[in-house]
Design a protein that fits this description.
Helix 2 crosses helix 6, helix 2 packs parallel to helix 8 and helix 4 packs parallel to helix 9. This protein is mainly α. The termini are far apart.
Length: about 250
């Protein structure tokens, strides 16, 4: 219901072709969704142990995971927006697949960060809190789709659904922050995202002019710019990379 209700509404209002077009764009987000879920599944045992030791322990670990998912989600959003036509080029769908994916690209960032709320609330035995958030989001998403689809052009139903999804995920992001703050106390939500946002802007400045270039250049140059910006802005400090570098070296030696 949560992830597919908009497809049902679009099919009912605009037909199977537009629903299929929107579904094609949505498939790429489905694939991206595996990444934050895999990260949080690995961290979940540590969060559960921290929850037995008090909110302070959960807060410290959560903020690290929150920033990590934001760091990974930002380039996913930028590349979806910049390279949407190339991503859907081989799907043979209608013309709105690329514009829909461009709009949905903003959702990729929220998709990554919201997963941190889901797993953290679960580790704290607050599953019902997120269930309530998800239920409210379904209501909002249904309302937005019913309102926006008729407002867009006859062939723009998928783009209307994409905007409804972005608005719903943004609302869920804010609501999740509010709910989690009730259990963990005041958290510096904005400050960790400032260097991530600056790094994302630097990446977008490189990605957009190269959106029609060969894919190795269109992907490689923005990723390189993002990595450099992440280090320059302090979004990721060199000391935080040492455990990862040590782990890679250990694997290579083995």
């Amino acid at each position: 219901m949560y992830f597919r209700v908009d497809l049902v509404i679009l099919q009912a209002l605009r037909g199977f072709e537009q629903a299929g077009d929107y579904g094609a764009a949505n498939k790429f987000l489905d694939g991206l969704g595996f990444v934050p879920q895999a990260v949080m599944s690995a961290v979940y045992p540590a969060l559960s142990i921290a929850a037995t030791r008090g909110a302070d322990q959960v807060r410290a670990l959560y903020l690290r995971v929150y920033r990590l998912l934001a760091l990974v989600g930002m380039p996913a959003s930028v590349l979806c927006v910049a390279l949407a036509p190339a991503i859907v080029a081989d799907t043979h769908t209608l013309a709105t697949a690329a514009p829909s994916l461009r709009v949905l690209g903003a959702t990729a960032f929220f998709l990554f960060v919201v997963n941190s709320f889901v797993f953290t609330l679960g580790a704290m035995d607050r599953q019902l809190s997120f269930a309530a958030l998800a239920g409210a989001s379904v209501v909002v998403n249904v309302g937005l789709n019913l309102a926006l689809i008729p407002l867009f052009g006859a062939d723009q139903g998928p783009v209307a659904c994409a905007w409804a999804t972005v608005a719903t995920e943004a609302l869920l992001f804010v609501a999740g922050l509010v709910v989690l703050s009730r259990y963990l106390g005041g958290l510096p939500w904005v400050r960790p995202l400032i260097p991530v946002a600056v790094s994302g802007a630097a990446m977008a400045a490189v990605a957009w002019p190269l959106r029609d270039a060969a894919q190795p250049l269109a992907v490689g140059a923005p990723v390189a710019a993002y990595c450099a910006a992440v280090l320059l802005t302090g979004a990721l400090r060199p000391a935080e990379l040492r455990p990862l570098i040590a782990a890679v070296r250990g694997r290579l030696r083995a």
